[in-house]
Amino acid sequence: MDTSSTEVSFPESAGDHFDRAKEVKAFEDSKAGVKGLIDAGVVEVPKIFIRPPDELSEDLKSRPVELQVPVIDIGNIRERYSRERVANEVRCASEEWGFFQVVNHGIPLDVLEEMIDGIRMFHEEDPEVKRAWYSLDQVKRVRFYSNRDMYESTYANWRDTLNISMLVSDHLDPDEIPNSCRFSSIEYIKHVTYLGHTLFELLSVALGLTLDHLPALECARGRTFVCNYYPACPEPELTLGTSKHSDPTFITVLLQDQLGGLQVMHKNQWVNVKPIPGGLVVNIGDLLQIISNDKFKSVDHRVLANRVGPRISVASFFAGVSVPPKVYVRPFKRTDIRRKSSYIRGFYSRRLYWRFSF
Ligand SMILES: O=C(O)CCC(=O)C(=O)O
Ligand SMILES: [Fe+2]
User: Is the ipTM of this complex over 0.85?
Assistant: First the structure.
């Protein structure tokens, strides 16, 4: 692979003279992401990715336990009796875990596999091709980057991303998507959008509301597809693929390959979300926690770095169109939730005559 135009070098050990801003800028200027580091032959994790020992030792102490997030079969939900049974499983999982996996969700296996392959192909394209898509400008609907919050966050994540945003418009011109994943993405987006609608129906029933309650709030619109590539990491014990966070969405539907690495916080312990062939992970986001009056939980999760890679995942964020832009503060911090929750509830009740009593 051609890396000759990557005019950056990363110090093996930055020691006391480490200038983070300079290193971040060098990494950013390369427009080659973490994959570019690997291609350049880096064998030690550069310092901007290294988390402090206290944070890492705390992470190491919290051993992932062998629990499994609930797996829910959502086939056959058009019939009312089975829908209510499934909605009850969704309710339990959303209250206790904030996470579940769905099987028999109606998206064909080849659509899932082609999506993963397409995203892998994009990230493994010639660096010059990817550079043309590189941008940290949030207004751009389709863009490639590594660590969109690089300049604000304290530690960089060991991952690269292709971001496809349909937040402000439902229409996406095929030409706006890179060639390598164009048709697979369009097909997957079509299917996962339909699935999102079905999940909002189930979540409505799970909340004791009518089937169309959450779909009527247009929760299933305003989507962003975050297509991640986690390169193999030479020192996975020093960094993370994705740092601990909760999602600022109504829900997120996650497609992951079979490598694993996603962990969810459950009862103060990290639990591995084991990939299921053909399964999709669903998690409750901050917005649904807020408008459900904290009945459903938006739970912290993270992704470990791994000596084996790459790992591919596609997070479909359903953020709703009716939430005004200033509510999109990413990542939503816990304090932000508290600060914003009355505003968001107020917004919904004013606009949609939201009535909720538990
Ligand atoms: O890649 C994953 O498994 C999860 C990514 C994630 O949590 C996110 O992008 O919000
Ligand atoms: Fe997430």
Answer: yes
